[in-house]
Amino acid sequence: MRRVISVYLPFWPIEARRKRMTPTPMNPSGAPDKPFAIVGQEGQKQVIVAVDPRLKHDGIQPGMSLTHARAIIPHIATLPAEPLADAKALERLAAGCLRFSPLVATSAPDSLWIDATGVAHLFGGEQ
Questions:
Q1: Other beta carbons within 10 Å of 122
Q2: Verdict on whether the full-model pTM lies above 0.85
C-alpha cells in the first residue's frame, strides 16, 4: 500500500518572500518588520493572495479585496505577488526533500507530496 505525506504550507508565499528579501542597512534582516500581505491582480481588482499570520486575527484573509482589507487596516503593508518566484522556491524545497524520499512532487502554490512508501523504517517507523 502506498504511503504519501501531504505537506500543506498555508503561509508559503509569505515565508518564501521573507527568504528572498535582501538585507539593507535600514533593515538588516531583509524582511519587513511589520506584518504584510501579498497582493495579486484579478481583472481590475487587487486581491489579497497571502497574509502574514500576524494579520489573520485582524480578519484579513486570502481572497479578500485590497479595498476591503484597507477598510479594516488602513495602512496595511503590501507587496506584489510573485507566483513564479514562489513556485521556484517550492521546487527547491521539494528538491531538498529528496533526501527523505525518492519521489517528491509540488502542488503549487503551497503544497508538497512526499512518497513515503518503504522509507518509514529509516526514520523509526510511521509514528
A1: 10
A2: no
Contact assessment for residue 78 and residue 36, using Cβ atoms and an 8 Å cutoff:
yes
Between CA 40 and CA 55 the distance in angstroms is: 17
- DSSP-assigned letter for residue 57: T
Kindly tell me if the per-residue pLDDT of 26 is higher than 70. no
Phi, then psi, of 109 in degrees rounded to 5? -100, 0
| Residue 22 neighbours by CB under 8 Å, 6+ apart | 30
Residue 82: pLDDT over 90:
yes
pLDDT computed for residue 25 by the predictor? 67
Q: Which of 82, 49, 87, 85 is nearest to 65 (CA)?
A: 49
Distance CA(18)–CA(25), nearest Å, equals 16
